[in-house]
Amino acid sequence: MQAIPPALRFWHMPVDGSWSGHALDSHLLLNLWIALGLFTLANILLVVGVVSRRRAHRPLHKLTLEYLPLTAFAAVFLFLGARANSLWATQRYTGAAPDALQVEITGLQFAWYFRYPGADATFGRTRNELVSAAEGNPVGLDPTDPHGTDDIVRSQLVLPADREVDLTLRAVDVIHGFAIPEMRLKQNAVPGLTQHIHFTPTRPGDYAILCTQVCGLGHYRMQAMLRVLPAAQFDQWLRQQEQAQPQGNQR
Ligand SMILES: [Cu+2]
Q: Long-range contacts: 182-188, Cβ < 8 Å, 24+?
């Protein structure tokens, strides 16, 4: 876990609770400094341009005025884009470690549900037509699949600190936005797609999970809680949940 750079703390960024947060924060800060530099430069050029034009009555050459700044801006934006993309790719497109904790996240109007694969380490099959929170099956577990009998479905996300987590995101009805600002994590959950994103929480505590897509009238109340526990406490919690199956299951 690394501290937030002082400048970002000044700008009221949320605490940095994940392993990858520091690199993302630094990149954001670099973007802001470059934007400030360009803003200042643009204003200086504006003033110099107005003054020199009045004095000399001689317009600047097209190369100086257009092509050089355009090339410089393109280079800066390409650099920032490539850097952001490589940071994003490490969380989104490179696979998680094989021993990462597997958790599936289901977004539906208007709640998040979190599923752990249970003792057999395999998620059971789900079918959207079986989704019914009222009947105790909010993620649509298929009762004919034996892998699903030990799956643990909860409305709170509990994770261990300092262990990589491989999230599998899906949505049942419309697009939802899974976001935890303190984990610097944000990814849309899209119906028909299963998407992976992985991260490592480092700071035990409670964090709000938000939906960042306006997904319907109840969007404002689509919130859940992430609880990050020290590893030993998490193992204890998971054992308790496994022992509580199937009677204690919320589905
Ligand atoms: Cu939503």
A: 182/14, 182/15, 182/16, 182/17, 182/18, 182/21, 182/207, 183/17, 183/18, 183/21, 183/207, 183/226, 184/16, 184/18, 184/20, 184/21, 184/24, 184/25, 185/18, 185/91, 186/212, 187/92, 188/213
Nearest alpha carbon to residue 191 among 75, 73, 107: 107
| Cα of 78 from ligand 1 centre, angstroms | 33
| 217 burial level (CB within 10 Å; 0-12, 13-18, 19+) | exposed
pTM of the model as a whole: 0.81
73-93: pLDDT as tens digits: 899 999 999 998 888 888 777
Of the candidates 104, 106, 108, 105, the residue with the CA atom closest to the CA atom of residue 218: 108
Distance 223 CA to ligand 1 centre (A): 8
Task: Write out pLDDT tens, residues 180-226.
Answer: 999 999 999 999 999 999 999 999 999 999 999 999 999 999 999 99
> Distance, CA 222 to ligand 1 centroid (Å)?
6
DSSP-assigned letter for residue 141: B
Distance (angstroms) between ligand 1 centre and the Cα of 108 equals 7
Which residues neighbour ligand 1 (ion) by CB within 5 Å?
A: 176, 211, 215, 222
d(CA 33, CA 176): 32
Identify how many contiguous H helices and E strands the chain contains and give both numbers: 5, 10
176 alpha carbon to ligand 1 midpoint, in Å? Answer: 4
